[in-house]
C-alpha cells in the first residue's frame, strides 16, 4: 500500500526556516517588479543581477549610483550563508566549505579542481530525510530545505574564488547534502539561475549540471517536463528490491523497475545519458550475480554506471569492496555491454567525499 507520508514531501516542502527573500530566489519578472517596488527603474534589476551572478561584491558594482546600490543590495542581497570553516586536501585542489545559514543551520559544499574543469558539489537541503543507512547526511535526518538563493550562493561563492585565481566553475553537481527532488521547486529554480545566461544567471552549460536523486518517481516525471538538459543521476546501489529496500528506503514506495522506467523516460525525452550511482559495499551489493542483474536491467539503454567504493561513515558496519571485487564487478558490466567506470573519491581525508557530508560531524570538529 502507498505510504501516505512520502508524496507530500516531494512537492509541498515546508517554508519553515527559510531565509529572507533574495534576488536569486526570483525569476526575471520577479526581480524587475521587486526593483520597481523599491522605487527604482526595472533595468536596475539586470545591472544588479549581472554583478551578483558574476560574483561581484556590492562595492564592485560601480555602474550603480551609491544610493541606489545601497537600497537594492540591502533589500535584495541579504546575507544568506557565512563561512564557518574551509578545509582543503589533494594539494588544495579539493576544498570543503562549511556554511552557516541565517538560523544557524549548517551545510557543506565541496569544490573540486581537475585539470580542465572545476566542479562544485552543492547541498540542496540541510540534512536529508531519505534515511539511507550508509550515508552520513542521512543519519541525522532533515533539518530544512535550502532556498533557491542559498543553493545558488554556494555556486556563486565558488565562482568568485575561482575567478580570483583566473579560473571559472565549469560543472555543478547536486550531490551534497539533501535530496534535491524533495526540494523540487527551489532546486529547479537554482538550476535555472545557474544555467541562464548573463545578466539573468551564471551561464554555466546545462549539460555540465548533474541532479542526483534517490528516485522520487513523480518528481522525476515532473523534471522530464521542464525542458532542461541537465544530467540525471539515479542512486541505485542495488538492482533488486529486496536489498534496495534496505539501502535506499524510499524504494519501498517506488521500486527498482518503476524508478528505472521513470529515469529512462527522462533519458528518452532529453536525449541525455542516465547516470547510475552504485556504491560498492563489501559483501552487501558487490556479488557477481548482482552485477549480472544490474547489467540485465540496463542493457541496451543510454546509461553510464558510476561505481564508487563506499566511504564508510563513522561507526559504520559496512566497508568498501576490495579492489579485485570492484574490478570484477566493472568487468561483468562491461562484458554485458554496459558502460561503467569507477569514480575517484576526492576529499576523503577531509570528510568531503560522497556521502560524508554531515553537519553534526563538521560542527563538532572545532578549529
Ligand atoms: N540524495 C541524493 C544526492 C546526495 S548524495 C542522492 O541520493 O542521489 C550523492 C551520492 O553519494 C548518492 O549517490 C549517494 O547514494 C552517495 N553516497 C551517500 N553516502 C555514501 C557513502 N558513504 N559512500 C559512497 N557513496 C555515498
Please summarize what this structure is.
The chain is 36% helix and 19% strand. By secondary structure, the chain is α/β, with parallel strands linked by helices.
Structural account:
By secondary structure, the protein is α/β, with parallel strands linked by helices. It has two domains: 22-78, DNA polymerase, domain 1 (Orthogonal Bundle); 119-356, Aldolase class I (TIM Barrel, Alpha-Beta Barrel), CATH 3.20.20.70. The protein is 36% helix and 19% strand. It has 13 helices and twelve strands. Strands 1-2-3-4-7-8-9-10-11-12 form a ten-stranded mixed sheet. Strand 10, helix 11 and strand 11 (303-309) form a beta-alpha-beta unit. Helix 2 packs across helix 3 (43-53), helix 6 packs parallel to helix 7 and helix 8 runs parallel beside helix 10 (256-270). The longest helix has 17 residues, at 148-164. The structure holds S-adenosyl-L-homocysteine (SAH). S-adenosyl-L-homocysteine (SAH) binds at residues 130, 132, 134-135, 175, 179, 212-214, 235, 277, 279, 308, 310-311, 313, 354-355.
Key features of this structure:
DNA polymerase, domain 1, TIM Barrel, two-stranded antiparallel ribbon, 13 helices, 36% helix, disordered N terminus, binds S-adenosyl-L-homocysteine
The CATH C-level class name of the largest domain:
Alpha Beta
CATH superfamily of the largest domain: Aldolase class I
- What is the name of the CATH architecture of the largest domain? Alpha-Beta Barrel
What best-fitting shape do the alpha-carbon axes yield? globular
Structural class designation: alpha/beta
End-to-end distance: 49 Å
Count every helix, treating DSSP H or I runs of 4 or more residues as helices.
13
Number of structural units classed as domains: 2
Major sheet description: 10 strands, mixed
Average predicted local confidence, pLDDT? 91
Strand order, sheet with most strands: 1-2-3-4-7-8-9-10-11-12
Hetero groups bound? Answer: S-adenosyl-L-homocysteine
Question: In sequence order, what are the helices and strands, one letter per element?
Answer: HHHHEEEEEHEHEHEHEHHEHEHEH
β-strand amount: 15-25%
- The CATH topology of the largest domain is given as TIM Barrel
Low-confidence stretches: 1-13
Helicity, as a percent range: 25-40%
Record field, number of beta strands: 12
- Mind telling me the C-alpha Rg? 21 Å
Amino acid at each position: 500500500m502507498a505510504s501516505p507520508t512520502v508524496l507530500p514531501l516531494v512537492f509541498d516542502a515546508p517554508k519553515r526556516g527559510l531565509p529572507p527573500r533574495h534576488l536569486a530566489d526570483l525569476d526575471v519578472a520577479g526581480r524587475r517588479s521587486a526593483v520597481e517596488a523599491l522605487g527604482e527603474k526595472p533595468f536596475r534589476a539586470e545591472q544588479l543581477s549581472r554583478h551578483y551572478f558574476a560574483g561581484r561584491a556590492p562595492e564592485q558594482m560601480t555602474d550603480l549610483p551609491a544610493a541606489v546600490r545601497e537600497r537594492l543590495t540591502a533589500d535584495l542581497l541579504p546575507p544568506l550563508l557565512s563561512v564557518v570553516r574551509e578545509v582543503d586536501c589533494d594539494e588544495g585542489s579539493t576544498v570543503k566549505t562549511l556554511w552557516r545559514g541565517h538560523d544557524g543551520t549548517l551545510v557543506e559544499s565541496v569544490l573540486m579542481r581537475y585539470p580542465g574543469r572545476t566542479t562544485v558539489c552543492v547541498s540542496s537541503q540541510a540534512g536529508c530525510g531519505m534515511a539511507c543507512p550508509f550515508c552520513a547526511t542521512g543519519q541525522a535526518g532533515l533539518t530544512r530545505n535550502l532556498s533557491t538563493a542559498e543553493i545558488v550562493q554556494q555556486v556563486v561563492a565558488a565562482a568568485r574564488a575561482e575567478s580570483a585565481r583566473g579560473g571559472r566553475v565549469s560543472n555543478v553537481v547536486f550531490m551534497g547534502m539533501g535530496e534535491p527532488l524533495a526540494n523540487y521547486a527551489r532546486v529547479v529554480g537554482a538550476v535555472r539561475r545557474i544555467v541562464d545566461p548573463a545578466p539573468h544567471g551564471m551561464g554555466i552549460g546545462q549539460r555540465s549540471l548533474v541532479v542526483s536523486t534517490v528516485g522520487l518517481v513523480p518528481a522525476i516525471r515532473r523534471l522530464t517536463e521542464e525542458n532542461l538538459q541537465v544530467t540525471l543521476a539515479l542512486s541505485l546501489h542495488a538492482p533488486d528490491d529486496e536489498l534496495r529496500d534496505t539501502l535506499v528506503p524510499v524504494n519501498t514506495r517506488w521500486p527498482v523497475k518503476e524508478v528505472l522506467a521513470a529515469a529512462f523516460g527522462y533519458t528518452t525525452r532529453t536525449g541525455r545519458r542516465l547516470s547510475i550511482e552504485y556504491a560498492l559495499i563489501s559483501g552487501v551489493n558487490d556479488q557477481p550475480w548482482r552485477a549480472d542483474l544490474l547489467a540485465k536491467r540496463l542493457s541496451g539503454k543510454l546509461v553510464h554506471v558510476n561505481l564508487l567504493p563506499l566511504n564508510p561513515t563513522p561507526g559504520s558496519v559496512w566497508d568498501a569492496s576490495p579492489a579485485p571485487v570492484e574490478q570484477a564487478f566493472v568487468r561483468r558490466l562491461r562484458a554485458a555491454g554496459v558502460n561503467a567506470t569507477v569514480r575517484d573519491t576526492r576529499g576523503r581525508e577531509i570528510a568531503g567525499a560522497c556521502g560524508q557530508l554531515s553537519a553534526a560531524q563538521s560542527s563538532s570538529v572545532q578549529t
